[in-house]
User: What shape does this take?
Amino acid sequence: QVQLGESGGGSVQSGGSLRLSCTASGYTYSTYCIRWVRPAPGHGLQLVSTINSGGDSTYYADSVKGRFSIYRNNAKNTLYLHMNSLKPEDTATYSCARGPSYSCSGSSWYDYRGQGTQVTVSS
Assistant: This one.
């Protein structure tokens, strides 16, 4: 049974930093793309960042590029998101989501998603 569990959220002031973690179980973590997503304004989910199975290919949404860093530790089945220079518009529930095997394929597809961790940024 695939399970994804996020942690590390919290409340910070604008310009602050947080590190989110996502621990995966129930599948061979090192062979899948994995993503961070958050609700999009209006409806649906926004793709925040992705990383391929080997950790050598990443993607960032324009809104977080240069401020967020995604990385993974395949030995620990854990995904991270370092969030710097946080802005009030980054306030959201951040979830990790399992993408396709190996490559992220330039898409936002996922099949499993965690419950999320809340990030609140005050001005």
